[in-house]
């Protein structure tokens, strides 16, 4: 879910927020609480076939066709300020623009921060971070450089890998973890840190610091043309991994996450080995590789034939939305794509990306994007009105509360069910006391009984409902 730096509020909010609503005091006690403690969730609800089967013929009816998806994606780039078209950046970058990007992200925290041992980080630590930004070294003008990401890599607030926390012991939320980029992502390289170990890059949905070894610098046409190569394969599993090979470690057992697209070398000679392995029993794909001098090379490698991939994005149908979402069920929650996983907004983004639907990276931007079909709510909307909107939710709808997003998968016995990547939920127990259930993963829960506090149903905190249509 990678919101903004308002997250002291958001974790308090999203911890209760990722907790959810209850329409009335009587409802929670009417719903069963199994031994596992997750209210109103049965084993059959963890099977995507249960939810797909309830849809009947509508399960495979596309919400949007390819042309409509392409138009919506184009509108996202044109109308949403949180999304950048890196192909449209000028051939020259000016100092004011680059320094502005960096200052907008790399701001010194106002309160105390702690390391993993719970020790307060001294002012000298942050002085060193600011010095490593090397803002004085940003040239007055520079030729725009391009690169391809060669491995899944973290995006950081500062050019530093130190994990930083708001409170001692609260080590799941690294305050300097922004997001992650995946192999084949094109970036503009705008600056480098004083120690030379980090690059400040601009991608389509995020600008931040990345380990320089994760980026290979190449010619503009080569970098931007990589994503347009055809034929290609789209990763439709939660992840896929290239085949192990002893010859080129950079592309050996490389993780490709859901929605990543890679060129398929369909004309590779049928009997020509790839890194010593016969290609017939896999897919020969092309991946970016960072050479010793930091420049880009495109090299063949193998995906096993068993990899969950498709020659094109999946159709945008209710069945595919549910099926793709459930491929992440049980994955550990990873704030800002940490823990080699993802957070709530990353989760919904990658599910939809496997169907070629693009959305902004953060919950805040997703919930208000001018390119998406949405209904916005505020404090003036009553509980009754919000409940009426919840009753109209359909499969794939995205429900937003501050700092969190949930994806609707269906309705059972009059209760709405969602799948979401969350730290935990809260609900009222049989005695009326608030029960907090830590979850820290991709889970299925009901919507109506969830609470954001003793007296506040999470439904009352809904700020937006987005419908991909």
From TrEMBL:
This is SH3 domain-containing protein. Residues 1-24 form the signal peptide. It holds the Pfam family NLPC_P60. It comes from Luteimonas salinilitoris. Residues 163-210 form the SH3b1 domain. Residues 330-421 form the NlpC/P60 domain. It comes from the Bacteria. Keywords: Hydrolase, Protease, Signal, Thiol protease. Belongs to the peptidase C40 family.
């Amino acid at each position: 879910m990678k919101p903004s730096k308002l997250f002291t509020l958001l974790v308090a909010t999203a911890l209760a927020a990722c907790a959810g609503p209850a329409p009335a005091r009587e409802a929670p006690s009417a719903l069963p609480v199994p031994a596992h403690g997750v209210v109103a969730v049965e084993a059959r609800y963890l099977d995507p076939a249960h939810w797909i089967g309830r849809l009947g013929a509508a399960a495979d009816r596309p919400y949007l066709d390819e042309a409509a998806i392409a138009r919506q994606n184009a509108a996202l780039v044109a109308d949403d300020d949180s999304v950048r078209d890196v192909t449209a950046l000028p051939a020259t970058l000016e100092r004011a623009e680059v320094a502005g990007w960096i200052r907008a992200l790399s701001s010194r925290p106002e309160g105390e921060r702690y390391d993993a041992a719970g020790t307060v980080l001294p002012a000298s630590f942050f002085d060193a971070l600011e010095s490593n930004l090397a803002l004085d070294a940003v040239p007055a003008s520079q030729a725009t450089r391009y690169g391809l990401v060669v491995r899944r890599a973290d995006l950081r607030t500062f050019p530093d890998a130190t994990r930083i926390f708001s409170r001692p012991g609260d080590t799941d939320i690294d305050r300097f973890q922004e997001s992650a980029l995946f192999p084949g992502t094109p970036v503009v390289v705008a600056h480098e840190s004083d120690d030379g170990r980090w690059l400040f890059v601009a991608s389509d949905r995020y600008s931040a610091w990345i380990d320089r070894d994760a980026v290979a610098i190449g010619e503009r046409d080569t970098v931007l043309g990589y994503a347009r190569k055809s034929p290609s394969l789209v990763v439709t599993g939660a992840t896929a991994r290239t085949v192990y090979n002893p010859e080129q470690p950079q592309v050996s057992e490389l993780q490709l996450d859901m929605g990543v697209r890679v060129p398929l070398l369909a004309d590779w000679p049928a009997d020509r080995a790839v890194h010593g392995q016969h290609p017939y029993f896999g897919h020969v794909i092309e991946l970016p590789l960072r050479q010793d001098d930091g420049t880009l090379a495109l090299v063949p490698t193998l995906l096993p034939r068993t990899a969950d991939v498709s020659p094109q994005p999946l159709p945008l149908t209710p069945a595919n939305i549910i099926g793709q979402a459930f491929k992440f069920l049980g994955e550990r929650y990873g704030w800002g794509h940490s823990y080699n996983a993802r957070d709530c907004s990353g989760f919904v983004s990658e599910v939809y990306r496997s169907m070629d639907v693009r959305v902004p990276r953060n919950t805040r931007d997703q919930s208000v994007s001018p390119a998406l079909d949405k209904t916005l709510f505020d404090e003036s909307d009553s509980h009754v009105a919000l409940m009426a909107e919840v009753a109209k939710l359909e499969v794939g709808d995205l429900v937003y509360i501050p700092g969190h997003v949930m994806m609707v998968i269906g309705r059972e016995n009059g209760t709405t069910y969602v799948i979401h990547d969350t730290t935990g939920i809260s609900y009222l127990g049989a005695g009326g006391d608030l029960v907090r259930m830590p979850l820290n993963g991709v889970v299925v829960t009901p919507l109506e009984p969830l609470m954001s506090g003793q007296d506040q149903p999470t439904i009352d905190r809904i700020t937006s409902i987005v419908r991909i249509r």
